[in-house]
Amino acid sequence: MEPAALEQVLRAERGRLLAALIARIGDFQRAEDALQEASASALVHWRSAGPPDRPVAWLLRTALRKAIDGFRRDSTAGRHRAAMEVLAAEEAADPDPEDIPDDRLRLIFTCCHPALEPKTRVALTLRAVCGLTTGQIAALYLDAEPAMGQRLSRARAKIAAAGIPYAVPEPDLWPGRLNGVLTVIYLIFTAGHAAGPEAGADLCAEAIHLARMLDGLRPSEPEIEGALALLLLTEARSAARTGPDGATVPPDRQDRSLWNRARLAEGRQVMHRAMARRAPGPFQVKAAIAALNAPEAGMDWPQIAALYSRLMEWEPTPVVRLNRAVALARAGSLDQAAADITALADELDGFQPFHAVRADLRLRQGRGPESLADFDRAIALAPSAADALFLRSRRAAAISSAAVARPGGRSEKKGRAEARPKSNREV
């Protein structure tokens, strides 16, 4: 079997195999080492003898044998005698892939445990559940591969030393822990949006894969459905995010013919299914906002502003407040939007979309020189060439406007044409 074929098996089954091994071995690091050694053996044996009829069972049985060998090499092997006997019995049983319990839900919750820092949760989930290489994860964070390898090793060691349970949380802990898991999945998705192909893997697809997996493992959970809907609705517009000139295109200016209608329809269907359960949560609200950013007709800014106000009940963060201010401005509440944006100046000084939003608002207020300064700051902070190109075009338009030509003035033409502020991207 060629390496690509083995990679295909591991891509589809790595999470389930690793979860099954951790459940049997009781040690995250040993389980991953055993699976890695089994995969190396597969490259040798499958190439010479041909692939087995049941590659998943072969990998699990071989990994169990490697784990037993690892225990025997351990200086404290005597302590592990009982575990070795259990593993030997499992290995001799020649498990049927259909009989392997799906413990991936436990694996996901372990990777996303709140005792681990956020960056580590994302990295460990990408490695353990999605099967990305350490090098791919390092590239995502612009880290050196050895440094990322050390981070992952420390995470596994912490799981063992701190006794982080390999389990789905008890019912009283479920809501809070689930939000943490969904946040990790969303961070993977947004990282994919930001990095694009340069990440070395389609992280948006990985995030959707994780959300679908979670939905299958825990059906009828409205917040999981809300998160899946949010990802589908956002990804459906990905082909229209960049214009022919290479500049970022805001949702209300995108070419709707480029939107993925099937994905939009699925996202809306999942969102409505979640909302019908009448157990609202932040991811369902975000999905509703995403749906309103992909309308068949015009944007319903008053409704978007209302949804951001509801989202603030769960997430009263500066970024949510900024998004609410943008929606208020586009809905016509300019004074309230200006007051809210001014109040965020200190907290969001290093956040590029804040300066883009304030630049447009100041332009409409007739504060041309200040607007240009905000555009310059936004361009300097732009995370991509596409965003910077969009902002430069907005700045060029501002220079030619009456507001900049006559600071303090506001032409009738400008009042009509600049009916709302625009940020260079959804924030």
Q: Overall pLDDT, averaged?
A: 83
Task: State the name of the first-level CATH class of the domain at 317-417.
Answer: Mainly Alpha
Strand content: under 5%
Which sequence of SSEs, written as H and E, runs from N to C?
A: HHHHHHHHHHHHHHHHHHHHH
Task: Report what the structure shows.
The chain is an all-alpha fold and 427 residues long. Among the domains are: 1-98; 317-417, Serine Threonine Protein Phosphatase 5, Tetratricopeptide repeat (Alpha Horseshoe). It is 66% helix and 0% strand. The chain has 21 helices and no strands. It has helices spanning 3-25, 28-49, 55-73, 81-92, 104-111, 118-128, 134-141, 145-161, 174-195, 203-217, 222-235, 261-275, 282-292, 301-311, 318-330, 334-343, 352-364, 368-381, 385-399, 402-405, 412-417. Helix 9 (174-195) packs parallel to helix 11, helix 10 packs antiparallel against helix 11 (222-235) and helix 14 (301-311) runs antiparallel to helix 15 (318-330). The model is unreliable at 406-427 (pLDDT under 50).
